[in-house]
Design brief:
The complex is a heterodimer of chains A (274) and B (248). By secondary structure, chain A is of the alpha/beta class. Chain A is built from 11 helices and 6 strands. In chain A, helix 8 links the parallel strand 4 and strand 5. Classes of the chains: A alpha/beta (274), B mainly alpha (248).
Chain lengths: 274, 248
């Protein structure tokens, strides 16, 4: 038994990679349909959007690049679907230069799907340079920070921005963040001064740092990683990429837990001191 | 399907597989994918910055709308480039001084307020609820007590002015447990994030394995695997033919 445990501990790590690939691919090909439970922070974000009156202004800051697409893109799709279904005005932008085209494509597809008109129901402002300074700029004057939108039209003349002069006129701001600048930047340089409602989504890696902000009520609602996106899709009754990925997520987690247990048992059986 | 989409799919699959080939070992396919990624990222950033910042936020307002105040950031930006001219390099310090001064002035009060004062305020909540029905203690209050114990014990753990013996040691041990739990949660979330990225990539690889995309994943997986086998054989041959260490 001890010899077997020692051999197992010396197993080539590439076997684990193959095992992980198989466990990831199988649920994607043959979905298990495991239930998705809604967490309070996801429910809070959903309820906040639900409470907004029609034609309220939602600012959606897509602060991520293609590297975080699997986690944050499904959130973007769900939030746009929800906002458009509630007939809210969407003002989208990005603080990440590498995410500009992807953000524009996400907003345009979401709007086309919902039959919304560019410039009237939504606008994509493009990339806001300067990280925190961009937020301060928008806080002072949105039209000064973005004299033109991504398509080059003057923002002053856009019906979607009627009555929106600065961040003070935003009803709910959402930042989908993969790092800096992101949700915390929007809180520190935006909400703290201009006092709008702020929520958002983030990659699972950064989720733990936002829970203290959620706990103290500094932010309203949080979608954490692929799980948060799947929960939101469940709330909207529109299963998408995130829900499909949750089976694979659960399967890989089971495998990792199993590997940790097996390795520890083998370690004990092998009688190693180090 | 447009040729553009099809080419994009094949390129995406090929580069993904090149990067994943690193799981076998470092190889030329991985290096190719890595270098293309770095080059494309930098190129894309340059184009976006030029179009969205230099043109839309500087050149157009300055030249067409005569917003002369933009000359100030333009000069400050140009001064940064003076780093490349030894005689004028000192002028770049003006820009750095401006950036540091403004950034510190803006950031310090906001960060203190957001991450210290507001967090302290959130920690100092009543431990029990006093209402018309008397004093009550529910799950919310239990949460507050746990947060209080966590904050105090972790602060004690990092308080090194007093020797950690006796009751201080016991409190610090509790703090250490809280820290371990938070590290575990953070690691769990990290695993979840990495798995999500893998799932996202595999999801697309499966999509591109369909006839609609000309079985891109299948063909390119075969090509990369075959290439790896050929490269591995060449490396082994080179190793067997090479003279042993120290031989001339």
């Amino acid at each position: 038994m001890r010899e077997f445990a020692v051999r197992l501990l010396q197993l080539d790590r590439r076997f684990i990679f193959v095992l992980m690939s198989v466990v990831t691919v199988l649920p994607l090909l043959y979905p298990l349909g495991l239930p998705v439970r809604i967490s309070p922070e996801t429910r809070q974000l959903y309820d906040t959007l639900e409470r907004l009156p029609e034609r309220s202004v939602v600012l959606l800051s897509l602060d991520f690049d293609p590297a975080s697409k699997p986690e944050l893109y499904p959130m973007t799709v769900s939030l746009l679907r929800h906002a458009f279904a509630r007939n809210l005005r969407v003002v989208a932008l990005t603080l990440w230069p590498a995410g500009t085209s992807m953000a524009e494509s996400a907003v345009t597809h979401g709007a086309e799907e919902a039959g919304k008109r560019d410039g009237t129901d939504y606008v994509f402002l493009g990339y806001g340079p300067g990280e925190a300074n961009a937020i301060i700029n928008i806080g002072q004057s949105l039209t000064n920070a973005f004299p033109t939108d991504y398509a080059g039209r003057k923002t002053e003349a856009l019906p979607v921005l009627e009555g929106v002069r600065s961040l003070r006129d935003i009803d709910y701001a959402l930042s989908l963040s993969a790092g800096f600048p992101g949700l915390d930047t929007w809180y520190v340089y935006g909400k703290e001064k201009y006092g709008f409602e702020l929520g958002g989504g983030c990659t699972a890696v950064s989720a733990p740092k936002f829970y203290p902000l959620l706990q103290t009520g500094q932010i309203t609602g949080l979608l954490g990683g692929l799980r948060g996106a799947a929960e939101y899709e469940t709330l909207l009754n529109q299963a998408g990429k995130a829900t499909a990925g949750m089976d694979a997520q659960s399967a890989t987690h089971f495998l990792i837990i199993g590997l940790i247990i097996v390795c520890n048992v083998c370690y004990l059986l092998s009688g190693r001191k180090e | 399907m447009s040729l553009e989409t099809l080419c994009g799919a094949w390129l995406a699959v090929g580069l993904s597989l090149c990067i994943y080939s690193f799981l076998y070992r470092d190889n030329p396919f991985f290096k190719l994918g890595e270098h293309i990624f770095v080059g494309a990222s930098v190129g894309y950033l340059l184009v976006i910055t030029y179009h969205e910042v230099m043109l839309k936020k500087l050149a157009v307002p300055l030249i067409e709308q005569h917003e002369w105040r933009l000359i100030i950031p333009l000069i400050l930006g140009l001064l940064l480039l003076a780093r490349f001219l030894p005689r004028l390099a000192w002028t770049s310090r003006l820009t750095f001084a401006f950036i540091l001064g403004v950034s510190s002035g803006v950031a310090i009060p906001r960060l203190l307020s957001s991450f210290v004062l507001q967090q302290v305020q959130g920690t100092l909540k009543p431990l029990v609820t006093v209402g018309p029905a008397g004093i009550s203690f529910g799950l919310a209050e239990l949460n507050t007590v746990l947060i209080l114990i966590g904050v105090v014990s972790v602060l004690v753990y990092f308080f090194f002015s007093v020797e950690h013996t006796g009751s201080v040691r016991r409190v610090a041990r509790v703090g250490s447990c809280f820290l371990m739990i938070s590290f575990g949660a953070a690691f769990g979330y990290t695993v979840m994030a990495r798995m999500s990225l893998l799932i996202g990539r595999f999801d697309e690889l499966i999509l591109y394995a369909t006839p609609e995309y000309g079985y891109a994943t299948v063909w390119l997986l075969g090509l990369v695997t075959g290439g790896l086998v050929w490269w591995q054989r060449r490396v082994r041959q080179a190793e067997t033919q090479a003279p042993p260490d120290g031989a001339e």
